[in-house]
Design a protein that fits this description.
Length: about 110
């Protein structure tokens, strides 16, 4: 089941204080980026954040699940998705730990 655009808009509104955020539609779902760095996914109207050590410490009681079949587990954010301040802080601290996007080779 594809995610609904209004849920995607809601999540983007919740994390607007995390920096320059954008989404990219991928296979009927959405990747969430900051400065070209993929840090989260929205799949089946659920928010997933890439796991990091600092994110794990911040969340405390982590729930992990794969966003789609065959994917590595990510942090499933359900309870605090409506807490903009908490969610924005999770995104900010996760972005620090995630690697920079790989540079594409020119042909």
């Amino acid at each position: 089941m594809a995610s609904e655009p209004n849920f995607v808009d809601f999540v983007l509104e919740q994390i607007k204080n995390s920096g320059e955020i954008s989404t990219k539609k991928m296979f009927g779902e959405y990747g969430i980026y900051s400065d070209g760095k993929l840090f989260g996914l929205i799949c089946d109207n659920k928010l997933f954040i890439k796991p990091t050590n600092s994110g794990r410490k911040f969340i405390g009681n982590v729930v992990e699940a794969p966003p789609y079949d065959g994917a590595k587990p990510s942090f499933l954010i359900e309870e605090n998705v409506e807490d903009s301040e908490w969610l924005s802080e999770l995104v900010r601290i996760s972005l620090v730990e995630l690697p920079a996007p790989k540079q594409k080779k020119k042909k």
